Amino acid sequence: MTKATDMRSLLRLMAWLSPAFPVGAFAYSGGLERAVADGLLAGEHGLSDWIAAVVDHGSAWNDAVLLNEALSAHADAGRLHAVAELAEALAGSRERHAETMALGNAFVEAAGAWPADVVGLLPQTVAYPVAVGAVAGAHGIAAGQAIGAYLHAAVSQLVSAGIRLGVAGQRQGVAVVAELEPLLEAVAQRGAASTLDDLGSATIRADIASLAHEIQGTRLFRS
To answer: May I ask the CATH class of domain 3-17+28-213?
Structure first.
């Protein structure tokens, strides 16, 4: 890969996974809001530990595996439809399903500013990691870079949610992102070498929090 191509890949990832990209990620907390309400975490360290578990052993890890499969299959409509169906089935709650599908559909629409034939190969509705992986693959972006950027965006969104929920301040939030950087690098590398056989999670509290958020009364987030 030339320096020019590498720079273009970086710029596209920065655009697609920026908080300003119009997918509406700011509206979701992935169950974090319920976890805070139930007293399952508090403070900067609690927020960091919660996010680390989600990335290393939870839904974010599964997203990395699904993204890698979609990136590899970006030119194969059959494989893309299969991984899209699997990704939708893996959503562990009604809100998790609504979140990943809404973000995925919005991503495909917004990413149309960078035309690619892969859009015509995807199903009409598609989960977020599959959408990102397929589009990244169509633009020749390396799996490790795409997964790393995706995970960084997910962590940044959870940190932002934690700040809005009063768990940590802005400087503490930045410290959490910095602290998790080595983990993001390691999980991105692991995700880039993964297959669908590596799917699996062990974050039961996070999954229950996502389910319980559905019946939470006053709330800031949709999940």
So the answer is: mainly alpha
Domain boundaries, the chain: 3-17+28-213
pLDDT surpasses 90 at 2: no
**pTM (whole model) above 0.90:** yes
What amino acid is encoded at 214 in this protein?
E
Give residue 5's pLDDT: 74
Gap between the Cα atoms of 32 and 44, Å rounded:
14
